[in-house]
Specification:
Elements (H helix, E strand, L loop, with lengths): L19 E9 L5 H12 L11 E6 L5 E2 L5 E2 L11 E6 L11 H12 L3 E4 L3 H7 L7 E2 L6 H7 L4 E2 L5 E3 L3 E4 L4 H14 L1 H11 L29 H10 L7 H7 L4 H12 L3 H19 L4 H7 L5 H12 L3 H11 L39 H5 L9 H7 L23
Parallel strand pairs: 1-2, 1-5, 5-6, 6-10, 7-8
Antiparallel strand pairs: 3-4, 9-10
Helix pairs in contact: 1-5, 5-6, 8-9, 10-12, 10-13
C-alpha cells in the first residue's frame, strides 16, 4: 500500500485555476452498489469541523442519464451532471456496475479532461475499470477487488495491477481494493490533505481504524467463494455448486463444461460473462481457499492438504497458494496460529499420522500463472483455454516476490512497492 504522499508534487499536474482540491466530485452510475457509493459521500459530504475535520465541498454527479438505480433497486437523483466535474480538484469513481460493460464515453471524456487539468482522480473497487477505460492507469500501479484483478490486468496490459494492496497512491491517480478498502483510501486522502490529526479524528467519528496496511492482515488475503448474485438463477449455478462440493476430487474444466451440457468454448464464454474470470482461474482460487481453511482448522500436513483440495501434488498447491496469498502454506499456518487467541478459534480437526516436515521457502514460479509448470502437472493445465498464454506482464510482475525497480523520473512513495519497469 502506498503511504502518505506529501512528497509527490512532481507526479501531479498543476491544478487548473478554476479547480479546487477541496471540491470533491463523486461520479455515480446506474447499477452501482450503494455501499461503495456511500463511502465518499460520508467522508467528504458531512461537515465535521466540530471534531477537527476540515470541510470538503461535495458535488454528487450523475455519470449518465437518469434514473440512477443502485444494486438494491433504490433510485437516486444526483443534483449535478458531468459539467460539475469541471470545478472539482478531486474526482471519485466509487464503483462501476459491471466489469463486462464499457463506461459511457461522455464520462470518460470528463475524467480525462479533469486529469489533464490537474485534478486528483480516485477509483474505489471496480471504479478502477472506469479509470483504466479512460486511459488514466496506463503505465501506472493500481489495485482493485482481488476477484477482478486478473481481468483488469488482462484487459489493460499496460496497467501494473497488484491485488495484494489495500490501496495504491500514484500521486494524481489513486485506486483501492474492494469495499472497505475504499474507506482506507478516503482516510488516506484526508491525511494527505490535512494531516494525521484530521484523519484520526475522522476515523474516530466513523469508528474505523485510522490506518490499515496490508501487513496488518498478516499473510491472510481476501479469498472467498463469492460469485455475482445473478449466477443464482443461471443454469451454471448447479455446476458451480457441484464443483464446490467436489473440490477434493481431481477434475478439469472439460468436466464442468460436460456437466453444463456445453462445449468447452461456450462454457468458458458463459462463465466469464457471469463471473469476470476464466473457469480455470476460479477453480484454482476455490482450491486454494479450501486449502487455506484446512490449514487453519486441521493438523493435516501440507501434502495431505494438497490431496484433499484436488491438487495433483504439493508443489502445485505451494505455487498457487504463494501467488494468491503471498506466503507458503506452512508460513501461513504458523502466522495464523500465532494470531489466534488462546482458547479461541476452531479446534484442530484430525491429527496427522506423522509430524509435518518444515517447508522450505521456494520462490514463486516465473512466467505463466496458470501454465502446466506452475500447476506442477495438475490435470487442469491440459484442459485450460488459457494454458500456454502468459498473463499480462504488469500483473505477473507485481505479484513477484522480488520487486523490480522503477523507471527514472517517478518518485517512490514511502512504504510503496516499487513499480516494475514495463
Amino acid at each position: 500500500m502506498s503511504q502518505d504522499s506529501a512528497a509527490v508534487p512532481d507526479a501531479a499536474r498543476k491544478l487548473a485555476a478554476r479547480r479546487r482540491r477541496e471540491i470533491v466530485a463523486v461520479l455515480l452510475f446506474s447499477g452501482g452498489p450503494i455501499f461503495e457509493s456511500s463511502i465518499p459521500l460520508s467522508v467528504f459530504g458531512i461537515d465535521r469541523q466540530d471534531a477537527g475535520v476540515p470541510r470538503y465541498r461535495l458535488l454528487v454527479c450523475a455519470g449518465e442519464d437518469a434514473p440512477l438505480r443502485t444494486t438494491g433497486g433504490l433510485e437516486l437523483s444526483a443534483p449535478y451532471g458531468l459539467e460539475a466535474i469541471s470545478r472539482a480538484g478531486t474526482v471519485v469513481v466509487p464503483a462501476w456496475r459491471s466489469i463486462t460493460q464499457a463506461p459511457p464515453p461522455a464520462a470518460l471524456d470528463a475524467l480525462r479532461r479533469a486529469h489533464e487539468e490537474g485534478a486528483r482522480i480516485v477509483g474505489l473497487c471496480t471504479g478502477a475499470f472506469v479509470l483504466a477505460a479512460a486511459g488514466l492507469l496506463d503505465g501506472r500501479p493500481a489495485t482493485t477487488h482481488w476477484m477482478y484483478a486478473p481481468t483488469l490486468a488482462k484487459r489493460y496490459p499496460s496497467v501494473h495491477v497488484d491485488p495484494r494492496e489495500l490501496f495504491v497512491d500514484d500521486g494524481d491517480v489513486l485506486t483501492s481494493a474492494g469495499t472497505a478498502a475504499g474507506i482506507d483510501l478516503c482516510l488516506h486522502i484526508v491525511r494527505t490533505d490535512h494531516g494525521a490529526d484530521a484523519a484520526n479524528a475522522l476515523a474516530r467519528r466513523l469508528v474505523v481504524p485510522p490506518r490499515r496496511t496490508a501487513s496488518d492482515l498478516g499473510h491472510q488475503r481476501y479469498l472467498d467463494r463469492s460469485l455475482p448474485e445473478e449466477i443464482g438463477a443461471d443454469p451454471l449455478a448447479e455446476v458451480v455448486a457441484w464443483a464446490l462440493e467436489h473440490l477434493h476430487e481431481q477434475f478439469d474444466v472439460e468436466t464442468l463444461a460436460a456437466r453444463a451440457y456445453m462445449s468447452r468454448r461456450t462454457f468458458d464464454r458463459r462463465f466469464r460473462s457471469l463471473t469476470g474470470s476464466a473457469p480455470l482461474q476460479w477453480l484454482i482460487t476455490q482450491r486454494v481457499l479450501q486449502a487455506q481453511r484446512l490449514l487453519e482448522t486441521s493438523d493435516y500436513s501440507v501434502d495431505e492438504v494438497a490431496g484433499r483440495c484436488g491438487f495433483r501434488s504439493p508443489v502445485a498447491l505451494r505455487g498457487h497458494f504463494r501467488r494468491q496469498l503471498g506466503a507458503s502454506p506452512a508460513a501461513y499456518r504458523a502466522a495464523y496460529r500465532a494470531r489466534r487467541p488462546q482458547g479461541g478459534g476452531p479446534e484442530p480437526a484430525l491429527r496427522p499420522e506423522r509430524p509435518e516436515r518444515p517447508e522450505r521457502e521456494r520462490p514463486a514460479p516465473v512466467g505463466d500463472r496458470f501454465s502446466a509448470a506452475a500447476l506442477g502437472g495438475h490435470a487442469l493445465a491440459d484442459a485450460s483455454a488459457d494454458a500456454g498464454k502468459p498473463q499480462p506482464e504488469g500483473y505477473a510482475a507485481r505479484l513477484a516476490e522480488t520487486p523490480v525497480g522503477r523507471g527514472a523520473g517517478r518518485p517512490v512513495l514511502p512504504g510503496q512497492r516499487e513499480r516494475p519497469v514495463g
